[in-house]
Design goal:
The protein is mainly alpha-helical and 409 residues long. The protein contains 14 helices and two strands, in the order ααββαααααααααααα.
């Protein structure tokens, strides 16, 4: 039976998640050099159009349709929104219209591949990116959504336990973060002019983007309860606590290490906290969210420093923040989850099988996302270059590809 309050809550949450994609555009746009700002913002915005088409034309059905093959992929029951209407689906939000669930999940599908663009910023052709959007959505995001949320094989792993991923620690952040790392190895390092620096060109944009992301994340995590209830409330509070603790902790760590209180560092820390709490937001108590936020700051910061030492050109640290954050959050969910909140127990309540399930899911996700992403980019590159020529990189992608500039200076 449809509940008006639940329906309104999920619709608003979906709108908040939608706002995160423009927020990501500003966040990434501020971090790149000014000659490439429109290019990376376009990569976020165009995902809203392309992935929506994929989602309608079979993507949603493959993710949430009746299992078609050994828990690996759904069927085409809902192709073209067939059977997706105003009546609830008992499996996906029994108190909201099925169409509301479709719209909410669509926003997750849109932002996930857009996250990857921060890794290969400044050096990928727009045509290749459009193809990548389609293929990555079909062969990576949709299978993960089915495996974990759509009744796939990850609903029964160690001891029959289902993977606990409340709002996308695996489906969104880990999958995108690992894919980002794979893309760096395929596309290679950016070409710079002699003496040119890759410093953020507009930190005010980064702050605006962070604010929009943080605001939208309340819909991302809170809305994943699919009802206006206590689980949504605790997910909301946990989201804010983890982000706040991670922001302050990252600021202190970077201040000690770099001898200055960096605004970009504080903002990056908040995003790391948001990504890391995502899988656990609706399963853990607020004190655990604080611990998870602290862990996010420490471990993600170390991951970024490791990336720098290894000389991997993950331009905007998608792997270090989202990939590593997704790993930490997923595993710590298996540690701190308490049954009284949402029916899942972790190690602190003696459930070893749940913890092992979380670890196994992380391993499977990492291997699959890295391997398939690497393969997709390699195959696209056979038919057309994925990488922009060096002279175009030096000139700037905004003028070379789009014929536009962000600033008339």
């Amino acid at each position: 039976m449809i509940n008006a309050g639940d329906t309104a809550f999920v619709i608003i949450s979906g709108a908040l998640v939608c706002l995160m994609t423009p927020g990501l555009a500003f966040f990434y746009g501020g971090l790149v050099r000014r000659k490439n700002v429109l290019t990376i913002m376009m990569q976020s915005f165009i995902s809203m159009g392309v992935v929506t088409a994929v989602w309608i034309l079979g993507g949603f059905s493959l993710a949430f349709g009746k299992d078609a093959f050994a828990g690996l992929i759904g069927g085409l029951d809902y192709f073209g929104l067939a059977g997706v209407g105003m009546e609830p689906n008992p499996s996906y939000g029994p108190t909201i219209p099925f169409l509301t669930f479709f719209g909410y999940q669509e926003m997750f599908a849109v932002i996930t591949p857009a996250l990857i663009t921060g890794a290969f910023a400044d050096r990928v052709t727009f045509k290749a990116y459009l193809k990548f959007l389609v293929f990555w959505s079909i062969f990576v995001y949709i299978p993960f959504a089915h495996w974990i949320w759509g009744g796939g094989f990850m609903t029964h792993l160690i001891g029959g336990k289902a993977v606990a991923d409340f709002a996308g620690g695996i489906v969104v952040h880990l999958s995108a973060g690992v894919a980002a790392l794979a893309s760096v190895f395929v596309v290679g390092k950016r070409k710079m002019e002699t003496g040119e620096k890759s410093a953020p060109h507009n930190i005010a944009f980064v702050a605006l983007g962070t604010g929009l992301l943080w605001f939208g994340w309340f819909g991302f995590n809170g809305g994943s309860a699919l009802a206006a209830n206590g689980v949504a409330a605790i997910a909301f509070v946990n989201t804010d606590i983890a982000a706040s603790v991670a922001m302050v902790a990252w600021l202190i760590i970077s201040w000690l290490h770099e001898k200055r209180p960096s605004m970009v560092g504080a903002l990056t820390g908040s995003v790391a906290g948001l990504a890391t709490i995502t899988p656990a937001a609706g399963y853990v108590q607020p004190w655990a969210a604080a611990v998870i936020g602290l862990a996010a700051a420490v471990i993600c910061y170390l991951a970024v420093q490791f990336r720098i030492r290894m000389d991997w050109d993950d331009a905007l640290d998608v792997w270090g923040v989202h990939g590593v954050g997704g790993i930490i959050g997923t595993i710590l969910c298996g540690v701190f989850a308490v049954k009284s909140i949402n029916g899942v127990s972790g190690l602190i309540e003696g459930d070893v099988d749940q913890f092992l399930t979380q670890v196994v899911a992380v391993v499977i996700t990492t291997v699959y996302s890295f391997g398939v992403t690497y393969g997709i980019l390699k195959i696209i590159n056979v038919f057309e270059p994925v990488r922009v020529p060096d002279d175009v990189q030096v000139k700037g992608l905004d003028i070379a590809i789009h014929g536009e500039t962000a600033y008339d200076l």
